[in-house]
Each structure stands twice: as C-alpha cells, then as structure tokens.
Amino acid sequence: MSPQIPGQITYDIPQQEIMSSGHLACPGCGASLCMRIALKIFGPRTVLCVPACCWAVIDGPFPYSAAGVPVVHCAFETAAITATGVRHGLDIRGIKDCTVVAWAGDGGTFDIGFGALSATVERNENIAYVCYDNEAYMNTGIQRSSATPIGAWTSTTPGEHPKEEPKKNLVEIMAAHRIPYVATATVAFMDDLTRKLKRIRDMEGTRLLHIFSPCPPGHKSLESDSIKISRLAVETKVFPLYEIENGLKYTLNHKPKGIPVQEYTRLQGRFKHLTEEDLKQMQQRVDYEWDVLDKRISLFA
Fold first, then answer.
1. Most CB atoms closer than 10 Å: which of 1, 66, 85, 208?
2. Domain annotation covers residue 21
3. What is the CATH number of the domain that holds 176?
C-alpha cells in the first residue's frame, strides 16, 4: 500500500497490475475497471472463461491479450460449463492453486447462458462466476436483455416503445439453487467489491458475483459519470448491495440513503423519454422491490 495522504481514502488492494493498458474498452467502461480490480484480487494464478460479450473484444485481437492471465474464449452460452471443464481438468492434473472464473455479461448470463448456468450451480461446481451487468447486449448494438430495466431505451426497445418488462432478479434465482454464495457489487463501493472478490476467490463450490457495470454508449451517459451512476444505483435502492449464503442467510452490506430514483435516471439518456408519471411508477416499483428485500433480510439474517 502507498503511504496514506491525510483525507485520502485508501483500500486494501494489491498494487500489482495484472491487466495491461492497450485494451479496447470504451472510455468510462465499468467492465474494464471491474476486471482490473478483480485480477488484482484473484492474482496471476487465474484462468478466465469469457463468452461472446464486450470483454471478448476488450481483451484485444489474437495474439494480443490485455488480461494478463490465460483466457479461454468460448461460445455465448457456455461460460459456466467451460469454467467447469477447466476446473476439472486442473483438478485431474493436481493443480489446486488456480482460481477459475467464468466472466460474462448480462446477455450471456441472464439469457443465452442461463440454462448452462443453472445446471452448473445445481451441481455446485467449484467455480467463481462474475456477471458484469450493463443491462443490454452492448457489444452487438445495445439490444434489450432480460437484465434491461423497465422503461429503458435500447435499439430494440426505442423511446416510443421502451422495455415494458421488469428486470429479471438473477440474485434471487441463484439463491433459490442454494449455492454457497451470491452477492451484488459495484465499482463505486470499492471496499465492498474487494471484500466480495476475496470471498469468491477463497470459497469452495459455486459462487456468483453480480456487478452493476455502467456503459456510457449504451446508457447514453457521460464517460466521467460511470462511478457516480454506480453510486446512485445503490443509494436510490435501484441496485442494493447485499449477499446471500447457502440461499438462506441474507446480509445487507450498505444501507441506501433513499435518494429519489430521478437523480439516477437523469444522468442517462436511455431514460430521457420517461414522463413524470413514468418516473413516479418507477419510484413505486423500486420502493416495492426494496420493501420485499428488506423483509427477506429481516427474516433470514
């Protein structure tokens, strides 16, 4: 750690850089920052299994790679089962000190890879799964996914016909499989993120981390606002920070301030078509979802 400057916030993050510069991420990309921090925590003894997603491009064209660790590029739907195969292969060779990570976007997690993910967690395979969630198929043209929030613009749900369905609750679905660990995180709460990355590094069995990942082109936001948007997602209760162990024990990691949802949406052009009535309904939905989660946390703490 560097010497602390008075008033400076410091975190327990290794100084060693594993991910290199020269990657192909857009400016302000939440997914690139997530990977940089994750690799610092996981260390050089890591294998990444990356399906079709932004990170399949961000890593760079063959034979170059910005990740700094072995990367297995796999089909869109196969991140979880590819990681499973890598894990078993390493185990057969007696290599136990390698962290195997399936690293996928929301399209390859919530949708196309969902069946393989469910099968993997049902068997409680010994892998870490990280979903960086930018709430649409950003790599292929910003199409809606089941992670896209209700009311959002995408190229397939334009402003006149925004998405009408609520976002799929991935964390609760995974918790229903009774896996050892599932949690949410954002890059705006770095101490929480690094603690959870260490947990999924050191645990056995299937563990899944769902990271909210702003995408300036897809969210139509300023590159400089990515961290601010991440923080507002938490403080407005849109994306609460919590964890569930063995599908039963709930822990809230940060109590939101309860900032109005409009403060979150106004920074993103994908919501600019929403009327006052739309925003009121969005606030009601967020409050309802928070009340449900709060009851679960109180009941299963």
1. 208
2. no
3. 3.40.50.970
